[in-house]
Write a structure and sequence with these properties.
87% helix; mainly alpha
């Protein structure tokens, strides 16, 4: 009996031990599997994060803003070069003449008070010939008028005044030279623009007639050409008008200086004549 109980006890112990070992192995396998799964998930997550970080970020390229030159060039092409070219030609020629007039008028500006004082001093020190040398060496319409007056000094003050008036008109005509062309381009540029407008509208109506239907796409091109040529003509006229008004104002200023200086010049000649007679 003792052997039987010993055998049974040994059998139970072995069975319990095997069961415990098997359970421990299963738990260990389960834990290993779970750890492996977690490690795989972590590795996959890290790999995905790394790929996201390393992947180049593609940003949408923003369209660069067009420059003023590009916009003008684009509108010039859209307005049809056949209509825009004459308007552009008016602008180029008008600006060329206006700039030449502005430079000439500024060079013609003279310090009249200083010139009158120099003439007065020259007459006192060296007579009429010395004063004529001073005026001849000075640039500008005022000095030219003084030269003409000094050349007539021997004929009397009345002849000096008449010479100043006559030659003053000649100098004023020289100052106004070229202004008529600027005025012409001011009037011509809008006319050319309106002509492009009319031709563009005619083309739009021809397209409508040919298609037999009014469609925005048919008339849009002609109307766009019409509007662009009109705007171009008006812009050219406005720009040239500003230069024209400046030139006219400058001419008026020079004419006023010529008149004031001529009066002072005659007074100087009268003073010296009276002093010579006395």
């Amino acid at each position: 009996m003792k052997k039987l109980f010993s055998f049974l006890f040994l059998l139970c112990a072995l069975t319990f031990g095997l069961t415990s070992v098997s359970s421990a192995q299963e738990e260990t396998a389960t834990e290993d599997t779970t750890a492996l799964t977690e490690d795989s998930t972590a590795v996959a997550t890290e790999t995905a994060s790394t790929m996201e970080e390393e992947a180049p970020i593609v940003e949408e390229e923003e369209a660069e803003p067009q420059t003023f030159h590009q916009i003008v060039k684009e509108k010039f092409i859209e307005g049809d070069w056949r209509f825009m070219s004459p308007v552009l030609l008016c602008l180029i020629l008008g600006l060329a003449i206006a700039l030449e007039r502005i430079i000439s008028l500024n060079l013609a500006t003279t310090n009249t008070k200083k010139l009158v004082a120099q003439v007065d001093q020259a007459i006192t020190e060296g007579g009429i010939e010395a004063a004529a040398n001073v005026t001849k060496s000075t640039k500008g319409p005022v000095a030219s008028i003084f030269t003409q007056g000094l050349m007539r000094m021997s004929e009397g003050i009345e002849m000096v005044e008449k010479s100043i008036i006559a030659y003053g008109s000649v100098e004023m005509g020289k100052l106004e030279k070229g202004l008529v062309w600027i005025s012409l381009f001011i009037s011509l540029a809008p006319m050319l623009g309106f002509m492009g407008t009319v031709i563009g509208m005619i083309g739009a109506f021809d397209a409508i007639e040919a298609a037999g239907d009014i469609s925005p796409s048919l008339v849009a091109g002609g109307i766009k050409v019409a509007l662009l040529t009109t705007v171009a003509g008006l812009i050219v006229a406005i720009i040239l008008q500003l230069f024209y008004n400046y030139c006219v104002a400058k001419v008026d200023s020079l004419v006023n200086e010529m008149e004031d200086a001529s009066i002072s010049f005659v007074d100087v000649l009268v003073k010296h004549k009276v002093a010579a007679n006395s």
